[in-house]
Amino acid sequence: MTPPLTDIEAVLREHGPMLSRIAGSYESEPARRDDLLQEISVAVWRALPSWRGEASLRTFAARVAHNRAIDHLGREKRARGDELHDVHEDPDASPLHHALAHQRRKDLLAAVRALPLGQRQVVVLALEGFSQREISDTLSLEENTVTQRLSRARRQLQSVLAGEP
To answer: Is 111 left (phi over 0), alpha (psi -120 to 50) or beta?
Structure first.
């Protein structure tokens, strides 16, 4: 069920975790990430009246978030970092398992942040479960361009995460 256009609380309740992860892919420092998330939330609220349902609300919110994050980067000129998101691992797993999982998330986020902006955008949306068509719609790119950027990004991420130069 799609929330009413004026109900920003429902939109943020449904899509807030995704928006938070998008903000986290651009800013690693918690205070800066929170500032960016607040900017994104306000931007989504302001943009809601222009949503006409041509794309899903999820796609619309992701597009607004990425546009706001790009504006933010333009002002800030730096991304730094660690911490992917607040997903808690299996509570029955060993502390070593938790530490290794945390390190893998940290390494992945650092590698994603190091990607060129165009690749980073498609990877973040792919990690959010967007289809290539949805990514294409969200970023106003040809689907073939999305495929190429994802392919290049995957190769680069595999290389970086494998410890290759």
So the answer is: alpha
Sequential pLDDT tens for the chain (165 residues):
444 445 889 999 999 999 999 999 888 888 989 999 999 999 999 999 999 888 899 999 999 999 999 888 776 643 333 334 444 455 566 777 667 777 888 888 888 989 998 999 999 999 888 999 999 999 999 999 999 999 999 999 998 888 876
**Structure tokens that stand for 111 in this block:** 């590698």
Q: How far apart are CA 135 and CA 117, in angstroms?
A: 14
In the chain, the amino acid numbered 68 is: R
Cβ neighbours of 7 (radius 10 Å): 13
Contact 136, 146 (CB under 8 A): yes
| DSSP string of 110-161, one letter each residue | HHHHHS-HHHHHHHHHHHTT--HHHHHHHHT--HHHHHHHHHHHHHHHHHHH
The amino acid that residue 139 corresponds to is: L
Q: Are 43 and 67 in contact (CB under 8 A)?
A: yes
Q: How far apart are CA 106 and CA 139, in angstroms?
A: 26
What's the pTM value of the predicted model, to 2 decimals?
Answer: 0.63
What the block records as the tokens of 39 is 């900017």
